[in-house]
Design a protein that fits this description.
With 240 residues, this protein is α/β, with parallel strands linked by helices. The chain is 34% helix and 24% strand.
C-alpha cells in the first residue's frame, strides 16, 4: 500500500492551473459549470442525512467537514458558508496558496493544507472528495484513508467520471480535444464504475445510500440525472 495517495505528476498538472482557478472562463471553467450541480447534491444529501431544515442558511453549523482534493476551494468555500468548520487539503502547494488567498478575501476561515489525506488527523462529520479518486495512486487505499477520517454516523460524498464510451467521448475526445478541459487531465483507464466504487466503499465499512448521475443536454446543460453514464455522485454513511 502506498504511504500517500498523491501522484506527483497529477499534483503538478493541477498546480499549473492554480493562477486562474477562480476564473469561470479559465482552465477550470468546466469545474465552475459543474460546481452548482454537485453543491446541490451535497446540500440535499446533508439535509437528508441530518434531517436539516432545507430553508436554513447554515445547515452544517457545528459540523466538521473535510474536503480532499479541494483545488482552490470551489466546494470548501460553500461548505464554510453553510456553517461547517472546514479543513481542506490538496496535493498542490500552488493551488492551496490560491485557495488561502481567495478565502481570506472572502472573509472565510478555512483550514487549508498542502498534503494528502493520510496526513490529516482527527475525524469529521462530512468528508467530500469530488473528481479526485480518478487521479490517485491506489483507489481502494484512498477510500480507506477517507473512511478512517469519517466519524461514526458521518456522511461521505464522492464524485467521479464513469468508465463508459460516452464519458470517454465527452470528457476526453471532445472536452479535452477542444480545449474545454486542459489536455492530459484524464486517463480513461483510471475511470471507475459505480459498481466498482460501491465495492470499495463497502470493503471500507460504509453503506452506500444514494447514487445519482451528472448528465448534460443542450437545454439543461450539466444537471443531476438518473443517467450515470457520464459522471456520478455517491453518498455513503458510516454506521454510528
Amino acid at each position: 500500500m502506498s504511504e500517500t495517495s498523491i501522484l506527483q505528476g497529477e499534483a503538478e498538472h493541477f498546480g499549473a492551473m492554480a493562477a486562474d482557478w477562480w476564473d469561470p472562463d479559465g482552465s477550470s471553467a468546466m469545474l465552475h459549470k459543474l460546481n452548482p450541480v454537485r453543491l446541490k447534491y451535497v446540500r440535499d444529501q446533508a439535509d437528508r442525512h441530518w434531517q436539516s431544515d432545507e430553508c436554513s442558511l447554515r445547515p452544517l453549523e457545528g459540523k466538521r467537514a473535510l474536503d480532499v482534493g479541494c483545488g482552490a476551494g470551489l466546494l470548501a468555500e460553500p461548505l464554510a458558508r453553510l456553517g461547517a468548520q472546514v479543513t481542506a487539503v490538496d496535493a498542490s502547494p500552488d493551488v492551496i496558496a490560491v485557495a488561502r488567498a481567495h478565502a481570506d478575501g472572502a472573509g472565510l476561515a478555512i483550514d487549508y493544507r498542502a498534503c494528502g489525506v493520510e496526513q490529516v488527523a482527527g475525524q469529521f462529520d462530512l468528508v467530500t472528495s469530488l473528481e479526485v479518486i480518478e487521479h490517485v495512486a491506489e483507489p481502494q487505499a484512498f477510500v480507506n484513508a477517507l473512511v478512517a477520517r469519517l466519524a461514526p454516523g458521518g456522511l461521505m460524498i464522492l464524485s467521479t467520471p464513469n468508465r463508459t464510451s460516452w464519458s470517454k467521448l465527452l470528457t476526453i475526445t471532445l472536452a479535452e480535444g477542444l480545449g474545454r478541459i486542459p489536455k492530459g487531465t484524464h486517463d480513461y483507464g483510471k475511470f471507475i464504475t459505480p459498481d466498482e466504487l460501491g465495492v470499495m466503499l463497502s470493503k471500507a465499512g460504509l453503506e452506500v445510500i444514494d447514487i445519482e448521475g451528472i448528465a448534460v443536454s443542450p437545454l439543461k446543460g450539466l444537471h443531476l440525472s438518473d443517467d450515470v453514464r457520464l459522471n456520478y455522485l455517491v453518498a455513503a454513511r458510516r454506521p454510528a
